[in-house]
Amino acid sequence: DDMNEYIGTLKATIQYVRAKVRSKRHLKISFDEWNIWTVDAPRTEPLWKKAPHLLEDVYTFRDALVFAGLMNTLLNNCDVVKIGCLAQLVNVIAPIMTQKGGGTFKQASFYPFRYLAGNASGATVRTFSDSDTFENMYGTARTINEAVTHDMAKREVCVSLCNYSQETREVELELRSFGDLKAKEYVRMVNPDLDATNGFEHPDTVKPEELDLPNVKDGSLVSLSLAPMSWSFVRFEY
């Protein structure tokens, strides 16, 4: 929610200046080089070392939960954020890691990016949530963080849900006005160890699991059980 407030402040400032100078331009925001970044090692290297490994951080399942929430925030502000470039893509603070000789693995943060970048197209749907909140070092945040998109051309509705609670949360989705929805994909990322990571020797420690498709009542009502500290993605068609 801190990121959401930051974007909201920029949006309000742009609107204020536009009104003050009576401009007809509609300025948009480029949220450039965003990413999670965990500094877990000293940043010292010998001088003049040839092609050193720099900033090749390994990200945890906890980081992936934060990453998914950041993507939800960008989707929910797509009316003003028109460009959101992830920094970086390979090795350096990246979702994909490689090594000399051909080894590779996907970081925990790769999967929310894959599912949302590959499916959450069309328009973002404004949501109304009664989620409770919790306090953190940045202020107040919602326990359930969500984003919903609707692609009219593909006749798809996608829902991304982060549960930041230590307890299972029962969620009721009311997806009206889309027609007769049917679930086509349901995946979840959850791990009892928030510090779990992937690596060259264990590339699949943290990855999504496919769940049984949820029932859709009356074409629009969906009940989901969100595991503690988890990210869920559901894709519907109509």
TrEMBL record:
Pathway the protein acts in: Glycan metabolism
GO molecular function terms listed in the Swiss-Prot or TrEMBL record: alpha-L-arabinofuranosidase activity
SUPFAM superfamilies: (Trans)glycosidases, Glycosyl hydrolase domain
Protein name: Alpha-N-arabinofuranosidase
Domain called Alpha-L-arabinofuranosidase C-terminal: residue spans: 32-230
GO biological process terms on file: L-arabinose metabolic process; polysaccharide catabolic process
Subunit structure: Homohexamer; trimer of dimers.
Superkingdom: Bacteria
Record InterPro entries: Alpha-L-AF_C, GH, Glyco_hydro_b
